[in-house]
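Dear support,

I submitted the protein below through the web form. The confirmation email said the job was done, but the results page showed an empty box. After a refresh the structure appeared. I'm attaching both so you can tell me whether what I see now is the final result or a partial one.
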Amino acid sequence: QVQLGESGGGLVQAGGSRRLSCAASGRSIANYTIAWFRQAPGKEREFVAAINRDARWKEYADSVKGRFALSRDNANNTVYLQMNSLKPEDTALYYCAARGSPWESRSYTYDYWGQGTQLTVSS
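What the results page shows now:
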C-alpha cells in the first residue's frame, strides 16, 4: 500500500507560480498513475491533471491546460505539479491520488489519497 503526502501549497499572488509535490512512501510511485484533484470551499472535488506511470502521457483539465504542467521523478518517488499564471479561481485544497490503472477523471476511481495542501491565490 502506498502513502501519499502533498506539499508546496501556500499564499501566492495572481499571475505567480507555485510547484506542488506529491511524495510517496511504502511502495514505489512508479507503480501508479498519479492525479491531482482540487476542492474549493462549497464546491465539488474536481480533476486537475494526471500523469501515467512512465510520464509519456499526461492529461489536463481545460481550466488549467497551458498553465499547469506535470512531471514525475520515479527515482525520488515524487510527482510534481508546476502551476503558472495562477488565478484566484485556482484557490483550493489540492490533493494527489494514485491508482494502478490508466488515468480516470473520476475521483472515486482512485485508491490512495494524500491529505491535501492548501493553495490560496490572492487578487
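Response: this is the final, complete result; the empty box was a page-load delay. The chain has a mean pLDDT of 96.
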